[in-house]
Amino acid sequence: MKKKDANINPRTKYYHEKYPRQRQPYPGLDAKMRPVPDCGEESYVGSNRLAGRRALITGGDSGIGRAAAIAYAREGADVAISYLPSEERDARDTARYIEQAGRRAVLIPGDIGDEDFCQRLVTRAHKGLGGLDIIVMNAGYQQYSKDITKLTTDQLVRTFAINVFAMFWMARAAVPLLKPGASIITTSSIQAYQPGKDLVDYASTKAAIVAFTRALAKQLAPRGIRVNSVAPGPIWTALQVAGGRATDSIPEFGMDTPLGRAGQPVELAAVYVLLASDASSYTTAEVYGVTGGNHTM
Ligand code: NAD
Ligand code: MG
Predict the structure, then answer these.
(1) For the chain, N or C: smaller number of CB within 10 Å?
(2) Domain assignment of residue 272, given as a range
(3) What is the predicted pLDDT for the residue at 5?
(4) pLDDT digits (tens, 9 = 90+) for 30-75
(5) Active-site positions?
(6) How buried is 119 (Cβ within 10 angstroms: 0-12 exposed, 13-18 middle, 19+ buried)?
């Protein structure tokens, strides 16, 4: 019998056609996207690499956060997810996958642009899971703006509050609860390294996330807590169709990368698992790019 070729071409492994033009109001829902992003629902297979651990994932309802949530549950972790109240439908879908993996799901809706909520979020996740070992700071806000003279202070403050200040508020609440071996993972972006002209505010927050990650990693190293970041390239998620980019640029999304297509959230899952797990015990203050070839340095 002829042996099946085990190699899979990364250019064609996932959706690589033009995307249909589409637009949703912020923050958008995975459930309403065409095609629906692949967060590993049917494909991610775990192998107990996070057995018994407890993770909080912000923005865990959809996209990259959902891919991490599904993977963490299938690796044996209980998972709390935060999201905005309008994302209840996506959040319930994610919770169903966590529970189908035999793990506990804790749902915590609310706006992380609010300092008090960030404090409550950490406390509720810690209580709901009976402890906290992994925090994935993944929620993010991206609205494109072509002209800095038209960038409103409202948008500027909101982008920094959700993408940057929330990390400080959550870390401040969480660090006293974390034990040696805990792992914090932030989500930065290729935009920190190769900022686009329509994302001046967003790209600036993503560069701030890189500095936050590296500085906090050094501050927490003496306590045995690791802090790392994942820097995605163009990934097919609701963020992109809910004002993250001009609708006209949706069809060609990701096609300008060396691999010739946008990534799917599931293609980041293994990296979030690795950085959370004890297998990366000597890795801290690092940024792991998953960019389709537009490297971060
Ligand atoms: P997504 O829309 O699926 O996830 C973002 C999540 O952020 C939302 O689901 C929402 O729950 C959460 N969020 C937004 N505003 C919030 C608020 N005020 N309060 C609480 N939660 C809020 O999109 P995604 O692409 O999976 O985004 C995840 C992360 O990845 C973000 O930090 C984003 O900046 C980053 N990222 C995405 C891409 C990409 O191409 N999609 C590229 C680089 C970095
Ligand atoms: Mg969402």
Answers:
(1) N
(2) 30-40+47-290
(3) 78
(4) 999 999 999 999 999 999 999 999 999 999 999 999 999 999 999 9
(5) 202
(6) middle
